[in-house]
Design goal:
By secondary structure, the chain is mainly α. It has 24 helices and four strands. The longest helix has 48 residues.
C-alpha cells in the first residue's frame, strides 16, 4: 500500500462513517420521538389528552429538532477543530515547545521531529509536550499537514531512548502522511454531535429543582410536568449515552487497523524495528497507561496507545493489544529474541508486511539522509528567531546584486539576515534549500496577520525584481502560500469534486504540456498517452505549453480525490522520467505539483 492508496482508503472510510453516523442519527431521532410521546402521555394524562403514538406533525418537529441538535453539535465541534491541531493539544493539557528551548530532552525531541519533516517532505509541525503525563504516549492532530501538531507526554521524554522516541514520532508522522488526522477529527466531531442528546437530558434533569420550587408555591398541579421532565430527561440521557457508545464503537473499529499501518510505517521509515518495539515494550511493562486529562477518552483514537481505562476498555479499545502490535513488528520480541536487522521486516515475508495485507508504502523514505542533511544545515547556521526565519526565506528569492533589491518593509535586522543567508546559500543544492524552507514554517507561524501579509508582499517584490520568475521561485512562493494561508485562515479545505481521472482531463492536459516542454521526448509523450488511455479509455487532448495556465490547472486538480491525484501525478512523473533521470528543473516542477496538490512525494 502506498501513501496515495492509504489516503484514498481513509476517504472511503470517511464515506462509510457518514453512512453509519446517519444511521445513528436516524435511530437517535426515532428514540427521541418515542420519548417525547411518552413524556406528553405522562404530563397530560390527567387532562384527557387523546394523543396517539404516531403523530406526523409531531414526528416532523421531533425529527427536525433532534437532527438539528446532533448535526449542529457536530458542526460546532468540527468548526472548533478546523482551527488546527493546537486546539486538541490544548484540550489534552499540552504546552507548545519553545523553538529556542535548550532543555536537552526538548532539544532532542525538536531534532527528531525536524529530521522526520525533512525526510517526509512536509512542513515541520508544531511540537507539544503534555507536562503532567508521566506515562508514555503521543499524538498527531490537525486537519492537514499545514496545521498539524505532534505531541508527546513527559514520560516519552524521560523514559525513551532516542531510537525509541524516533519510532514513536515516525508512527505519528505516518498518521499525517496517510491522511488519518482528518478522519480522526471527523470522529471527534460526530461523537460530540451524538453527545448533545445526553447533554440535553442532563439539562432537563437539572431543571426539575426549579420546577419543584415553583410548584411548591402552587396547588401542586405541576406534578405531572415534573414526572414528565424526569422521565424525559433520564430517557434522553440514556439515548444520548447509547448514541455516544455507538460512536465509540465506530471510532474503535476504524482506529485499530490504522494503528497497525502506522506501526508498520514507523519501522519502514526508521529501518529500526527495535525503536518502536522498545517503546511499546516499555509501555507494556510500565503499568499505568491512562492520561490524567478529562479529554483522554474523547481523543483516545489520536494517541499512540489507549489513554483511557474502564470496564469497556477492551471492547471499545481504539488500539490493538500491545502484545499484538509488538509481535507484528517483531515476532520474537516478547521472548527476548529481537530481530537482528531491519531487512527482516522490509522483506515480503517479514512480520510487519504480514498484517493489514500489505506493506505501508513502496516509496523511499531516507531518514538517514535527512539526518545527514540536518547536520550539514546545522553546521552552516541555525534559525534562532523570527527575523532569522524571514531573512532565510527572502534570501532564497533575492537577486544576487543588492543594488537591484526592491524597497521592502522589513526591519534592518531582517535585511541583515537576508545578507547572511544569501552568503550561506551559495553553492547549496536545491533539495537542501527546500529542507531549510520546511524547517522555517514553525517560526513563520509566529507572525501576526498584518506581518504575514507584509512578508508575502516583500517576497513577491523580490521575486519580480529581475523581471522574470524562475521555476524555483514559483515553487517556493506557492509552498509559502499553501502552508501558511490555511494557518492564518485565508484558505479553507476544498471539497472533493472529481472522482475519475477523465473528470480532470482539461487541467491535466495543460499541466502535462508544461512537463513535456521541460523534458521534450517523443518516447515519454507516447508513454503518457498510452497510460492515460489505459486508465480512462479516452484520448488525452493535445495542448500547447502555457505556464500561465498552470496555477488554474492545479487549483482544479486540488479538488480531485487522492486516487485521481496520484494517477495525475504518476503521469507527470512519466512525462519527465523517460531517460530514467529526473533533472533539476524537472524535480522542481514535480515538487511544486506534489505540494500544490497536497501530496506526499518521497523522491
Amino acid at each position: 500500500m502506498n501513501f496515495f492508496a492509504a489516503q484514498n482508503q481513509a476517504l472511503k472510510r470517511t464515506k462509510w462513517l457518514i453512512l453509519w453516523f446517519t444511521g445513528g442519527v436516524i435511530g437517535t431521532v426515532a428514540c427521541l420521538y418515542a420519548v417525547v410521546v411518552a413524556g406528553l402521555e405522562l404530563w397530560k394524562r390527567d387532562q384527557a389528552w387523546q394523543g396517539e403514538w404516531w403523530n406526523q406533525p409531531m414526528a416532523c418537529w421531533t425529527a427536525g429538532a433532534g437532527a438539528l441538535l446532533v448535526i449542529g453539535g457536530t458542526i460546532f465541534k468540527l468548526s472548533q477543530l478546523s482551527q488546527g491541531g493546537s486546539v486538541i493539544a490544548l484540550d489534552l493539557g499540552a504546552r507548545q515547545v519553545d523553538l529556542h528551548s535548550q532543555v536537552p530532552a526538548e532539544r532532542q525531541l525538536l531534532n527528531v521531529v525536524e529530521e522526520m519533516a525533512i525526510a517526509s517532505g512536509i512542513p515541520m509541525p508544531q511540537v507539544w509536550v503534555m507536562d503532567d503525563e508521566t506515562s508514555i504516549n503521543a499524538f498527531a492532530a490537525g486537519t492537514e499537514p499545514a496545521n498539524a501538531v505532534i505531541g508527546v507526554s513527559r514520560g516519552c521524554l524521560q523514559k525513551l531512548t532516542r531510537d525509541e522516541l524516533q519510532g514513536v514520532i515516525a508512527h505519528e508522522f505516518s498518521h499525517i502522511l496517510h491522511g488519518d488526522m482528518r478522519l480522526n477529527v471527523h470522529l471527534i466531531g460526530w461523537v460530540f454531535g451524538l453527545l448533545m442528546i445526553a447533554m440535553l437530558g442532563r439539562w432537563l434533569i437539572s431543571s426539575i429543582r426549579f420546577t419543584r420550587s415553583s410548584s411548591s408555591r402552587s396547588d401542586k398541579s405541576n406534578a405531572g410536568l415534573i414526572v414528565a421532565l424526569l422521565v424525559t430527561g433520564v430517557s434522553l440521557w440514556l439515548i444520548g449515552s447509547l448514541g455516544v457508545l455507538f460512536g465509540r464503537i465506530i471510532q474503535s473499529a476504524v482506529s485499530r487497523q490504522r494503528e497497525f499501518l502506522a506501526d508498520a510505517s514507523a519501522v519502514q521509515f526508521t529501518r529500526n524495528p527495535q525503536g518502536i518495539a522498545g517503546a511499546l515494550k516499555k509501555i507494556m511493562r510500565g503499568g499505568n497507561r491512562r492520561l490524567s486529562t478529562a479529554a483522554a477518552s474523547e481523543a483516545a483514537h489520536l494517541l499512540f496507545t489507549s489513554g483511557g481505562s474502564g470496564f469497556f476498555q477492551q471492547w471499545l479499545a481504539t488500539h490493538p493489544p500491545l502484545e499484538e502490535r509488538i509481535r507484528a513488528i517483531d515476532r520474537d520480541a516478547l521472548i527476548g529474541n529481537p530481530v537482528s536487522s531491519a531487512t527482516q521486516v522490509a522483506s515480503p515475508e517479514g512480520s510487519v508486511s504480514a498484517f493489514a495485507g500489505a506493506s505501508p508504502t513502496s516509496a523511499p523514505f531516507d531518514l538517514a539522509h535527512a539526518q545527514e542533511l540536518r547536520t550539514a544545515m546545522a553546521r552552516r547556521g541555525e534559525i534562532r528567531s523570527l527575523d532569522d526565519a524571514k531573512g532565510c526565506m527572502l534570501a532564497l528569492v533575492v537577486c544576487a546584486d543588492a543594488d537591484q533589491w526592491p524597497q521592502i518593509s522589513q526591519s534592518p535586522a531582517v535585511v541583515d539576515e537576508i545578507k547572511k543567508w544569501q552568503s550561506i546559500f551559495q553553492g547549496v543544492s536545491t533539495k537542501e534549500k527546500i529542507a531549510r524552507m520546511e524547517l522555517t514554517f514553525p517560526w513563520l507561524r509566529e507572525m501576526q496577520l498584518l506581518e504575514y501579509r507584509s512578508f508575502c508582499a516583500d517576497m513577491q517584490s523580490m521575486i519580480e525584481a529581475d523581471g522574470q520568475v524562475s521555476l524555483f521561485e514559483w515553487m517556493l512562493y506557492h509552498a509559502i502560500h499553501r502552508h501558511l494561508e490555511g494557518y492564518f485562515g485565508y484558505r479553507k479545505p476544498k471539497p472533493i469534486l472529481w472522482h475519475e481521472l477523465a473528470h480532470v482531463e482539461e487541467p491535466l492536459a495543460e499541466l502535462l504540456a508544461c512537463f513535456r516542454q521541460l523534458a521534450p521526448s517523443q518516447n515519454a509523450s507516447q508513454q503518457v498517452l498510452q497510460e492515460y488511455h489505459r486508465l480512462t479509455q479516452r484520448e488525452l487532448p493535445s495542448r500547447e505549453p502555457n505556464f500561465a495556465e498552470v496555477d488554474a490547472a492545479l487549483r482544479l486538480l486540488e479538488q480531485a480525490s487522492p486516487l485521481v491525484k496520484s494517477q495525475a501525478f504518476s503521469l507527470c512523473r512519466l512525462a519527465v522520467n523517460a531517460d530514467g533521470v529526473i533533472h533539476e528543473e524537472e524535480w522542481q516542477m514535480l515538487r511544486a505539483t506534489a505540494d500544490a496538490l497536497g501530496l506526499i512525494w518521497l523522491d
